[in-house]
Amino acid sequence: MIRTDDSLATALLVSRLAGDGHDTLKASEYWSLSVPPGDLLGRSTEELVDIGFDDGMAERIAKLLDRSVALAFELDRYSEAGIATVTVHDEGYPIRLRERLGDRAPALLHVSGDVGLLSEAGVGVVGSRGVTEEGAALASATAEWATSLGYPVVSGGARGVDQLAMGAAHQMGGRVVGILAGSLVSDIGKAETRRALLEGNMALATPYSPEAPFSPGTAMGRNKLIYSLSTLTVVVASDHGTGGTWFGAVEALRRGFGRVAVWRGSGEGPGNAHLARMGARSIKSIDSLDELLGEPDEPVVAPPEPTQEALFTG
Amino acid sequence: MEYPLDEAFVEEALGYLRRLTGDSTSDFRDQQLEVIHRLVVERQRVLLVQRTGWGKSAVYFIATRMLRDRGSGPTLLVSPLLALMRNQIEAADRMGVRAVTVNSTNRDDWDRIFEQVASGDVDLLLISPERLANQDFRRDVLPEVGRRSGLLVVDEVHCVSDWGHDFRPDYRRIRRVLDLLPTGVPIIGCTATANDRVIDDVDEQLATDATVRGPLGRKGLSLHVLDLAHPAERLAWLSETIGRLGGSGIVYTLTIADANRTAEWLRSQGLDAAAYHGALESDRRLVLEQRLLANEIDVVVSTSALGMGFDKPDLGFVIHYQAPASAITYYQQVGRAGRQLTESWGVLLRGAEDSDIQDFFIENAFPPADLAEEVVAFLEASGESFTASEIEQRFNVRRSRLAHLLKTLEVEGAVERDGYRWRRTLASWSYDRQRAEQVTALRRVEQEQMRGYATTDDCRMVYLRALLDDAGGGRCGICDRCADGSLAIELDPRLVARAVEHIRRGYLPVKPRLQWPGGGRIPVDHRNEEGRALSRWGDGGWGDRVAANRSSGGFDDELLEAAVELIRERWQPDSFPTWVTVVPSVRYPGMTAEFAARLADRLGLGFRDVIQRVSDREPQSEMHNSAMQFRNVDGAFAAPGPVDPGPVLLVDDVVDSRWTMTSVGAVLRQAGSGPVYPFALADAVGRST
Predict the structure, then answer these.
(1) What is the three-class DSSP state of A119?
(2) How far apart are alpha carbons B555 and B192 in whole angstroms?
(3) Is the dihedral angle over the CA atoms B570, B575, B580, B582 positive or is it negative?
(4) CA distance B331 to B253
(5) CA distances for A54 relative to A44, B71, B155, angstroms
(6) Which of B68, B139, B171, B180 would best serve as a mutation to test chain A binding (most A beta carbons within 10 A)?
(7) Does the pTM exceed 0.90?
């Protein structure tokens, strides 16, 4: 991949690789930069102040950009391990993220497998880890149906619904996108996953460092990517008022990250009915997905709403 | 075109130069200031092509100091053979550039070094390209030392080019990292040997802003070529000539065995000589380097391991015992002679075996495509990790070849290390046949150029400069083509005879195998003792005689006497054998047994042909690795009844993998023999017979 200065400067500003002690830019800070990131390269703190940054920000930016040698070695190390680093200035960055998440969109993703899959609007399948037998069957059936219609299945790679859905799609030879909230490095270390990645038809991605461990915060950040990368996300089973599935779906509905559908019927979770009342489309039979998927998938720019985030990200 | 510089900048730089040289009248050479300015002020990427001794290191030391004064992070210098830069580092210290090395031997210091880097107490960090391939180093060291970026120096930068005479896999990583560095990080690549094609390639890899290039020719170096076909003639010539050339120098050989043998010969002729090669401990190498630098040794006989970065301005001579595979490599090596002497010598001795050795290197540079594809497909299908010996057991490939294959595949990004195991990476990969063919074709051209150098009627320096696309300068006036004064001498036949004897007196230990393939230890009382091989296959001494005798159907008396002399006079096994037996041969039935019987007779021992071959196998030379070789002989031999309980001499014609000797030895021990001492006429390990 040919790297432009904008791409490399973006990585320097937001990547947490080679970043101990560096205060990397949050998504909102990155998107509010007034000049192309490549133009910041080679400028001293004073020069950054001259072009309009306040003292604190100027110093932060200068420090972040100063670690280019360390970051170059780190990017190369991960690239060799099969982990690509894709910034908003690189080919392959899914532009849907920016369209739907606005200033919440991560400017950088780490991806293993087929990067191109991220840009193909898929069908999201989400649900809680503890799942009933009916819920499990439903997760697989939804993934199979999406696969038969030619959509990639997008999910979170967690135990329960996520893995059932991804496994079912993979079994059918379908395409799978996993957005991870835990360590990408340990995931791609598993023999089964390696085989699948090498066969193609799979992408695993994370907006976090490739070795960052799972946390409730990373889980929430990951959920918004699933909704925004999918033309429609199906909530198989959700708790009510608790758990990542619930909060993820509520946030997606409220901020318009993407279309949300919720299963109503045998196998549903206690939160499903509530999500329907909050605006999620109800699905009562798998084949009704056809109809929903046929409806237009308009991009929705998220309204700027900086409050309430603390509730989810801790 | 004059490069514009402001006065204050020149003053500042000149001050540092004078502190570096310790001479208040020193001045810059043409273009040194320009390069410093490009790095310090314009923060550009520069390719610097200048002969050794031009002052490339002064450029990056001064640039480092000036960048540090302007708030930059420390310089990262990637260079092979860092130990040799000690003198330069001391000089840099005089002008306030504090340099430290980070390597595998100072791991205990890493934390302290990281702190020094963080607190700004280090101005320059040296690392070797090999370190860049090390996982721990990449994970623990590089992110720490690169946290504040400064100048990046890539020494011997021609190694990044596929089209270089000296492409090094570890430099590929540097190439990729260069792609990941944004504008504004100053980078300098240095080399003393690059032709137009390599320069173009490096320009592209480095995305250089400027290429600064000077003449590469050498004054005062007198180039000579002598054809001396037989190794003994060359040994005799060396011992006769070296003392007359004056000063300390280097003799280059193509193989470690030749380096050892030549150094031994020169010592036996009263010269202070030592062998130097990659298999020596680094401490030992450092000692030899220091002794050579201090002119405390007459001659170091070395493989190409004593190469890049070795900087001795008063090296009196560089002699090649064999011709290297490329004339540019030759130029790089011979160009080390006498940089600051008015007279120095560069002599190429051409031997009959040169082209065979060159061919071997060229033909084995790339692992076979089919094998590479099979191994990758196997790893890919499993998704799991495997040790080298597990892979070896599945494919018929020699251990060293497999190691080379895995290293090549690693560099190409097809496989990766997973601790001590190997697995398929997640990158797509296909064998690049076209590249392999192109590079092999290039190596053939280089080989032809080497031949052309020896046979040219033109000035030898002009010929070498032309290969580097350096058109400047006329005839050197002092080579054996420009001037009279051949270094050919009338060789004393008695001296040549002693050299022949020296070559023949060499022997090789046959080490006992300690483990069966797959890991089981061989019980101590089933193991062989250490044995001996009289010669090395194709060594120009007895090895050639063994080959010739084998095709003519019988081993002659001279070989017999040589074997007797070795066993009786020089080997003297701990408990001397009381009887002799022989390994039954597939290819040459009877011939070895007949020899073993004669040998037993001459040693005054009994000969008993007690080993039988119980199943017919492929010749062992068709099996390419331990696992296969062992499987091929496992159960192939038996002793029909109890044998003599005394120590036994086990004779074979050629030893290779040692599995035959090991299996037969175990059979003998189980049948009741005493200690088993293997003896072979030739050791052919690594060579096809």
Answers:
(1) helix
(2) 51
(3) negative
(4) 15
(5) 13, 21, 41
(6) B180
(7) no
Instruction: Tell me the C-alpha distance between B31 and B37, whole Å.
Output: 10
Contacts B129 to A, Cβ<8 Å? none
Name the DSSP class of B386: B
Res B279: pLDDT? 81
Provide the ipTM. 0.85
Residue B589, φ and ψ in degrees, nearest 5: -60, 135
- The C-alpha R_g of chain A, in whole angstroms, comes to 20
- What number of other Cβ atoms are within 10 A of residue B479's Cβ? 22
The two three-digit tokens of residue B676, written as one number: 């088993």
* Shortest distance, CA A230 to any CA of chain B (angstroms): 25
Q: H-helix or E-strand containing B677?
A: strand B676-683
User: Distance between CA atoms of B367 and B166, rounded to whole angstroms?
Assistant: 18
Mutant choice from B149, B174, B384 vs A, greatest count of A C-beta within 10 A? B149
Q: Which of B179, B380, B418 sits opposite A198 (nearest CB)?
A: B380
Contact B73 A66 (CB under 8 A): yes
Strand residue runs (E) in A7-147: 84-87, 108-113, 122-126
Round to whole Å and give the CA distance between B106 and B521: 35
Q: B77-105: per-residue pLDDT in tens?
A: 998 765 556 667 787 888 899 998 887 77
Q: Tell me how far CA of residue B362 lies from CA of A250, B404, B613, in angstroms.
A: 66, 14, 38
Which tokens is A100 given? 């739907």
Place of tokens 């000589």: B273
Those residues with Cβ within 8 angstroms of residue B69's Cβ, 6 or more apart along the chain or in another chain: none
Mean per-residue pLDDT, A181-192: 92
Helix (H) or strand (E) holding B655: strand B648-655
Distance between CA atoms of residues B448 and B355, nearest Å: 10
Residue B338, Ramachandran bin (φ over 0: left; ψ between -120 and 50: alpha; else beta): left
Q: How many CB atoms lie within 10 A of CB A299?
A: 12
Element at B153 (helix H, strand E): strand B152-154
User: Model confidence over B536-581: pLDDT tens digits?
Assistant: 776 667 888 888 898 888 999 999 998 998 898 878 888 899 999 9
3-state class (DSSP) for residue B75: strand
Please return the burial class of B124, using the count of CB atoms within 10 Å of its CB with bins 0-12, 13-18 and 19+: buried
- Positions in chain B short of pLDDT 50: 688-689
